Amino acid sequence: MSKTIEERERVIVRFAGDSGDGMQLAGSRFTDATAALGNDLATLPNFPAEIRAPAGTLAGVSAFQIHFASRDILTPGDAPNVLVAMNPAALKSNLAELDRGATIIVNEDAFSKRNLEKADYDANPLEDGSLSGYRVHRIPMTTLTARAVEGIEEASSRDAGRAKNLFALGVLSWLYGRPTEVTQHWIEQKFGRNPAVAEANLAAFNAGWSFGETTELLDVQYRVNPATDVAAGTYRTVNGTTALALGLIAASVRSGLPLLLASYPITPASELLHELSRHAGFGVRTIQAEDEIAAAGMALGAAFGGRLGVTATSGPGMDLKEETIGLAVALELPMVVIDVQRAGPSTGMPTKTEQSDLLMALHGRHGESPLPVIAPSTSGGCFAAAFEAVQLAIRYRTPVILLSDTFLASSSEPWRVPVVSDLPAIDPAFARAGGNGEPFQPYSRDDHLARPWAIPGTPGLQHRIGGLEKTDGSGNISYEPANHERMTELRAAKVAGIEVPPLEVEADAGAELLVLGWGSSEGAVRAGARRARLNGHAVACAHIRHLNPLPPNTGEVLRSFDRVLVPEMNSGQLAQILRAKYLVDVESFCKVQGRPLFAAEIEREIEARA
Amino acid sequence: MSAVKTNGNGGAPPALTKADFQSDQETRWCPGCGDYAVLSAVQQFMPELDIPPERIVFITGIGCAGRFAYYMNTYGLHGIHGRAPALATGLASTRPDLSIWVVSGDGDALSIGGNHLIHALRRNVPLKILLFNNQVYGLTKGQASPTSGIGMVTKSTPFGVSDHPFNPVALALGAEATFVARTIDRDRRHVTEVLRRAARHDGAALVEIYQNCPVFNDGAFSALTEKDVKDQNQIRLEHGKPIRFGAEDERGVARAPDGHLAIVDVADVGEDALIVHDSHRMDPGLAFSLARLADDPTEPTPIGIFREVQRPVFGRTGPARTQTASDEQLEELLLSGDTWTVT
Fold it and tell me: Which residues in chain B are classed under CATH 3.40.50.970?
């Protein structure tokens, strides 16, 4: 039969099922095929906090969302256009986020009495009319997959049961005209050592595709053309974790300093430990420390030895690392601390995102202990942020805190791979003995107020440093009142003097409202502003990636608009700083739900102020 | 700062002396503190290592012992309370060319830093850890420490300590440390011999040093240091030799019928019944039993090397990782996985 083809500029698909249903795999395969087609895209996985929640329950639902388009897109999307629900729990826990009229594709076989009970459904939603506002496609995926696999020798019924995610992927791949070779090739590679499983998965995928093509259930195929407004270059898909790892390795290579990452297992920052642990061949050493404190200490110990010391953690781990970060401030040694923020306080919601560690990063240590804080704004941007964190740490001999978050860490997008020769070399500028017979001055300073980095093994520069206050210049222990004040001022002036680029403002003519975000909300802010513009509103937006010091023109920018809206995934932490520092009456839009900001929310907030 | 030693003119470098290891900082421990004796012994012994001062690092925690780093003309890092082993582990894992010494105290190593200590030992990080045990918090002016004996009256325990103390040697053996020894500040020759063996050990070495605090816990180890009694109380362990002590070697250590180690009169049991010390045994059982011979150093107490064995050293597995990759390798890494090109 011939099918209608409709064009779409952008589509949001969410795959949802039980943790054991392979939704992350289906989503990531769909992503690769979409990238190969040349659409712009952004993705966001959503895992349950429990590792093995009881099958079929609401707590066990795992989801993967992808937003893809024929133009550049900025976020993984708000409300899905299509929900793939592999069981009743997946339907129930995701339905509220769908707009009326959205498409729902369900695995009909999974809507058994028992599964309905596990999802707390009194009646079958496929039968009771409660889904009448949606376009529901009921496909018996378990049965059809079993039938597709049944002829394969050595493929067990278990293999068939596990392949239904590939069937669902096949259906969606047909529906959106995704290239099949990418997925077929992947299946062959992945399961090459187990031909029966490879064949079963391939059969399931092909059956799903053919089902889409032949069934009368699906009467429209959609086309999303390749994006044409992307810059030339070589691309790959990265999430924030991979981009951070690559950025750190790149900085290690370009500085010639072997990298030590010391870390303690914590969600979601552990992913960075896993990622870097695989790169021993790149001079990368990783240590799974006995605790968060030790992890920070090991990174600092490596820095004392002239290596690139990095530690990574999430909220609760930051509490424990602050002691060592304070020492690093006193020692004035380069060190990078990565905080993949998650919802707090305390254990909070480990798998959910938040931006609530900003004030802690800036001020969470005893005594006056200023340090630079930077925050990447996109997953791909994590590469540049990690690289810059290393540059700043080395140039200014200071610990640097990089604030990522759960959303950036797990969200994927196409990333233009930088050309290595374009990455600046980073000169560690280790101190060498002057040979003039003058005693070495470990706390003398250069033009950036940075002190010499004299590493063990350098003849003639033996010196002792520690957490006790030091004499300006000589570094000897000092309790002298005026010296302490001078050292406090010097430490502050060094950080305040760090060169960061000015804020770039994207403003419509006559815009009176500035939307000023920071960190991971950039996509939502820009997309929200874009939608408001399409509705005829003049608006300006800007994004802060350097939280300390702030961009030099921040005050001027703030004062050049009548109103400033500051959206944050916390209770107004950046707003508090801007108000205190610039005496500008900024307005907060706060969201503390463990979920990223959405473009629709920004759009609504802009329009409410129009 | 002393003059830099150079290897100029093709000649052998001038031999190092104690003075090469003395920093220009004024030592500021209380008069009579046992730390002076240990510092002097360490400075005196360092030239023996034949390692130039710039390749030696002293890392310390907080407490009176923490000041040690400032007095050595080596590289020094005075860290935070309890964290010296963590700082040192980071350094050791990335700089295998250095000789790294940790100086800590009973509060620093066993209370706030207990976790770091046991993990450095179980990992067998190549560190020489000197644990100055004076059984009291000195720098904070006299509170009970994790090695203070039951009943000890301190500022924080006016009715006497009620918490059971740690035995540092037994703790280190429990963590399966590969080198564990105990010595006494007042016995320079013994301190030096133990340090020599510790320095030579490939892996983590823990040396407990009984150290007198003349202000807050004076005389805690007098049973082992005073002329008239020390022979009765020092049980000097020597590998391969029967364990005996006393002014005339009249006492010894033997296994009692129920299996535990007991102090005996040699005349009663005969020489053949004495335990022969074996510090090279992989099984730490004997060393552990010896560590537990005395509850408190007010009675016959073993000193010397309890255990000295080999097992894989931290950071020596896998690639060396002392060099970074090349730009070409980086480019390959950045372009790994599925890529596509937009023209």
Answer: 15-241+277-334
Q: A–B: how many Cβ contacts below 8 A?
A: 227
Residue B308: which pLDDT band, with cuts at 50, 70 and 90?
Answer: very high
* pLDDT tops 70 at residue B3: no
Domain count, chain A: 4
Show which of residues 283-302 on chain A sit within 8 Å of chain B, judged by CB atoms: 283-285, 287, 289-291, 293-302
B331 touches chain A (CB under 8 A): yes
Residue A547 C-alpha, separation from nearest chain B C-alpha, in angstroms: 28
| Domain containing residue A450 | 431-480
Contact B314, B126 (CB under 8 A): yes
- Closest Cα in chain B to A230: B342
A198 and A271 part of one domain = no
Domain for residue A514, yes or no? yes
**Which of A228, A241, A298, A323 should be substituted to probe chain B, the one whose Cβ sees the most B Cβ atoms within 10 Å?**
A298
The verdict on A397 and A476 lying in the same domain is no
Say yes or no to pLDDT of A140 above 80.
Answer: yes
**CATH class name, domain B15-241+277-334:** alpha beta
Residues A27, A91 share a domain = yes
pLDDT (tens digit, 9 = 90+) per residue, A142-172? 999 999 998 888 888 888 889 999 999 999 9
Chain A interface includes B236 (CB < 8 A): no
Per-residue pLDDT tens digits for A237-295: 999 999 999 999 999 999 999 999 999 999 999 999 999 999 988 889 999 999 999 99
SS (H, E, C) A477-493: ECCCHHHHHHHHHHHHH
Domain identity same for A390 and A248? yes
Q: Domain for residue A302, yes or no?
A: yes
**Secondary structure percentages of chain A, helix, strand, coil, to 5:** 40, 20, 40
Pairing of strands B56-60, B75-78: parallel
Residues A82 and A138 in one domain: yes
Do B78 and A466 make contact, defined as CB atoms within 8 angstroms? yes
CA torsion, ordered A162, A167, A169, A172, to nearest 10 deg: -150
Distances (CA, A) of A467 to A317, A362, A457, A475: 21, 19, 22, 11
Bridge partners (DSSP) of residue B313 are none
Distance of alpha carbon A65 from alpha carbon A49, whole angstroms: 17
**Are residues A122 and A93 in contact, defined by beta-carbon separation less than 8 angstroms?**
no
Q: Which of residues 511-550 of A touch B (CB under 8 A)?
A: none
The reply to whether residue A290 touches residue B78, judged by beta carbons under 8 angstroms, is no
Please tell me the distance from the alpha carbon of residue A352 to that of residue A350, in angstroms, as a whole number.
6
What was the pLDDT predicted at A73? 85
Chain B neighbors of A275, CB-CB under 8 A = none
| Cross-chain Cβ contact B54/A462 below 8 Å | yes
C-beta of residue B44 within 8 angstroms of C-beta of residue B36? no
> Cβ separation of A457 and B55 shorter than 8 Å?
yes
Please identify among residues 119-178 of chain B the ones whose CB lies closer than 8 Å to any CB of chain A: 119
Mutation pick from A34, A246, A249, A304 vs chain B, by most beta carbons of B within 10 Å, is A304
Q: Which residues contact B309 (CB under 8 A, 6 or more apart)?
A: B178, B179, B279, B280, B281, B282
Q: For residue A438, what pLDDT is reported?
A: 84
Three-class SS of residue B76? Answer: strand
- Chain B, residues 181-220, CB within 8 A of chain A, namely none
Please state whether the predicted TM-score (pTM) of the whole model is above 0.90.
Answer: yes
Q: Determine the longest span between alpha carbons in chain A, in angstroms.
A: 91
Q: Which two tokens stand for residue B140?
A: 């904070």
Q: Which of residues 225-244 of A touch B (CB under 8 A)?
A: 230-237
Does residue A458 share a domain with residue A309? no
Interface test with A, best of B108, B340, B343 (most A CBs within 10 A): B340
